[in-house]
Amino acid sequence: MSYTNQETTQTQKDQRGILLSVQNLNVWFELRRWGFGHAGYVRAVDGVSFDLHEGETIAVVGESGCGKSSLMKTILGLYQPTKGKIIFNGEDLSAFDGNRMRRYHSEVGYVQQDPFGALPPFMSVHRILEEPLIIGGVKSKSERLARIRKMMEEVKLAPVDDFLEKFPHMLSGGQQQRVVIARAMIMEPKLLVADEPVSMLDASVRVEILKLLRGLQEKHNLAVIYITHDLSTVSYFSERIFVMYAGQLVEKSEVRALIKSPAHPYTQALLTGTSEPDARNALTYKEIPPGEPPSLVKPPTGCRFHPRCTRMIAGECDVNNPVEVSLQPNHQVSCWLHK
Amino acid sequence: MKTIQQFLRDLRQYPSALAGGLVILALFGVAAYAMVTIPYAEAIRLWRGGEDVWYQNPKYAPPLWLNWFTDKKQPESFIIRSEDNPQVKQVQDNGETSRITLTYQFDYNYDDFPQEMMLYFKSNYLEKQPFVTILWKTPDGREIRVANTGISREQTFRFSQDEKLVRRLGGMNPVQALFLPEKAETGAPIKGTYTLVVEGVTFEQGSNLDAEFVFHGLVAGWAGTDHQRRDLTVPLLWGVPIALAFGLVASLGTSILTMIIAAVGAWYGSWVDELIQRITEVNLVLPFLSILIMVGTFYSRSIWTILSVTILLSIFTGGIKGYRAIFLQVKESTYIEAARAYGASNARIIFQYLIPRMIPLLIPGLVSSVPAFVFLEASLAVLGLGDPVLPTWGKIINDAQVNAALYKGLYYWILEPAVLLMITGLAFAMLGFALDRIFNPRLRGM
């Protein structure tokens, strides 16, 4: 896959409007002891800031439990931010009332990881796709059906009549994921949040689903937040990549620059761990960081990666929080090594 | 449609379900029949009726079909009305006076004596009463004078209570003596054709005389009679719709409300859930029957009050815990998260996403819990807390118990409603178990 498309858009990037602006977002969950005693917070998202332009695709990568999902659910409006702001199209999410929130829900699509779990088992495809339309206030039944048919064709669930009255368990994993994508897209959102959309699919259908997402993204000028732990699929259709570790974004960069010269030790470790499909890789030994991601209840002081970092600067990394440094206009890293 | 066909195909694999289903259908048929043939007002009138409604029936009479199973045949009850049977009445009009002869002929092939015989006279006159002579003709050719008496406009002649007749028959009970051979004091009645002749004379132009001969045998009707001469078919038939209505409404109301409340608690969590759980726990330790007895004793014994209280007390029971446990699991499923992400409201999630998931569990539970409520209603009636107006199975058992039916050997009185209760319970249980197996995949093949 070439990056020509991204290179041209990259130069025009500053002309594109900002669709979503996340400002110092914190999402903490209170821990309770005996049901009422306070026992601290799980800091799932801890000071995350970024801007997302219209039609732009970003990838958020990180290990399991790094707060990717909490970040995503907060953007979707499912969790309340503890601190910080989410600005969508110039409007603050926290100021939305019930009606505006419902409209916001139809402006943001959500593609989940497990396609079977994401579809109510007792609803037919028709009903599943109709639900967002009913909630979104499309009153006319014929209009709803027309939109469902159009969307199903767009996600290549054709012939439509064969699928319309089927139940999720009658579909293959790939077909189920197409239904999930169709459901996310049916209200013609401006932003699509895709939470590991291909990780539970067979390798054979992964590429097709990614191609489909990319096609939809280009056709509808869709902004996409693509959440994954798998760096090998990121380069497929993302422009920028955010590396998340223990609730914080440690490196933000264009995909090409990041892959070519990862600045944060954690990013370097992640990239080392990613296998290109090459037979020689089977024989090479790769250095991966020891240990596990830290507790989000009591995160390490200073840089959160320092206990696992091979290049830790004693007295600096374990004491002071790293500040974000711009290496290039579109490449920021939070690491004392680059100070 | 397809799912319904599939469901019926599954159901066919369980003979018990078919049997249960058929019995339930039959019960619904009987309920419909009862309500059509005996309208509610009529049923209440019959059930609350006294001697005036039921004078034609003997007391404590077992059903007719008891004779099919015994060698000693017991006399059946019957009535003959002179108004309805032209061959009974012969009129010889002599102008001022007229001679009216009423002849009641009946075959008697039984091995026991009747309970009572009566003549209900009706006459019209201005001043001079008609006069009658009552004669009894036995199959062996004897003719016994029963009575000579003047007849008022409405008069009842009871054979066993006529002092003169008793004296003439040597102090014996007339309903026995009239059937025994001459001079015999005990033994079996003579079989054959008896004739009761009422020879009446009226003394006015246009004066008329009619009489209804009521013969109280020892068996009566298809269900027998109780202490108030009431035919038990009325409460037995009407017990069906009442039992079904009570059982189904209570079961449906309880199951659906339980499910909705459990879903609301599980969905909203926090204090809503806590409140529901605490209410349930308190309710679980409260004695259910005692509360119902208190309500019945101090407030109202109306079936609707009892039904409402039953539903109210049955909502917050173990079911709520079970449903909640499953809802808590379903609540976390990704399709609920997806529904929230496309903006489904709380009510929509509860009713369109949480509850439909539980329907497969709801239906067998609903069917299986019907008998419990049917029995509950009957138990309350047995305890004397049944609806005072409605004829129900429980009321029959209550009456039987109060009148020492078992002590007197009147087994039919208790067994009839008890068997119906058993059949109803069994039918719903059999269907419920089969539905449970069909809907609950974990039980399949066990």
Helices of chain A, by number, come to 12
Radius of gyration of chain B: 31 Å
State the distance separating the first and last CA atoms of chain B. Answer: 28 Å
CATH class of the largest domain in chain B: Mainly Alpha
Give the helix/strand layout.
The complex is a heterodimer of chains A (339) and B (446).
Chain A: H1 4-12, E1 18-33, E2 37-53, E3 57-61, H2 68-75, E4 83-88, E5 91-92, H3 98-107, E6 108-111, H4 115-118, H5 125-135, H6 141-154, H7 160-164, H8 173-185, E7 191-195, H9 203-219, E8 223-228, H10 231-237, E9 240-245, E10 248-254, H11 255-260, H12 265-273, E11 324-328, E12 331-334
Parallel strand pairs in A: 3-8, 3-9, 6-7, 7-8
Antiparallel strand pairs in A: 1-2, 1-4, 4-5, 9-10, 10-12, 11-12
Chain B: H1 2-12, H2 15-37, H3 40-48, H4 51-54, E1 78-81, E2 89-94, E3 97-108, E4 116-124, E5 131-137, E6 143-150, E7 154-158, H5 163-168, H6 174-177, E8 192-202, E9 208-216, H7 233-268, H8 270-285, H9 288-298, H10 303-315, H11 318-331, H12 334-341, H13 346-382, H14 393-402, H15 411-439
Antiparallel strand pairs in B: 1-9, 2-3, 3-8, 4-7, 4-9, 5-6, 5-8
Helix pairs in contact in B: 2-7, 2-15, 7-8, 7-10, 7-11, 7-13, 7-14, 9-10, 11-13, 12-13, 13-14, 13-15, 14-15
Primary descriptors:
heterodimer, A: 339 residues, alpha/beta, Rossmann fold, eight-stranded mixed beta sheet, four-stranded antiparallel beta sheet, 12 helices, B: 446 residues, alpha+beta, MetI-like fold, Jelly Rolls, five-stranded antiparallel beta sheet, 15 helices, 9 strands
